[in-house]
Design goal:
seven-stranded mixed β-barrel, 13% helix, three-stranded antiparallel beta sheet, 149 residues, M1 Pyruvate Kinase, Domain 3, mainly beta, globular
């Protein structure tokens, strides 16, 4: 079981990441007020543990908001989760795949872009399957696939 550590909303493309305590997830769109709603990458997720490992490896102290993801999660592994459904209260997020780190990551910290390519350390992108409000501190779990006989 994981939890939401931080939530960020980006008001404009390449704009600042605003830290918030709660956010509304809109089915088929993304986070209310976020600039990148309605695409395949509706909400992006970053693993706290992966970020910490990257900072240790590269001798960095950068804040995870510099990754520009929407949610920072702890206690839940994101690597190789394409097609899985994440549950945060009534909100359900379908993992679409790995976020490919761009060259802007090297502006944050030299070597970060390449380091993020290993084991999905750059996080994942999701689509919102069911709407609801999420909060910092909310529990995060994986929906179990139904067993077939």
């Amino acid at each position: 079981m994981g939890r939401i550590e931080r939530i960020w909303i980006k008001r404009a493309h390449r704009g600042p990441m605003d830290s918030v305590d709660r956010a509304d997830c809109i089915s088929g769109e993304g986070l209310a007020g976020n600039a990148d709603r309605g695409r395949r990458r509706q909400i992006t997720l970053l693993e706290c543990e992966s970020w910490d490992r990257l900072m240790t490896r590269l001798n960095g102290i950068e804040d995870p908001s510099s990754r520009r993801a929407n949610l920072l999660l702890s206690g839940i592994a994101l690597a190789r989760t394409r097609g899985r459904i994440m549950c945060i209260g009534e909100v359900r997020l379908l993992v679409g795949g790995e976020v490919t780190p761009c060259e802007r990551m090297d502006d944050v910290l030299p070597g970060l872009q390449e380091a993020m390519r290993e084991n999905w350390a750059g996080g994942v992108f999701t689509q919102v399957m069911s709407s609801g409000t999420i909060h910092v501190g909310d529990e995060v779990t994986w929906e179990q696939a139904e067993e077939t006989s």
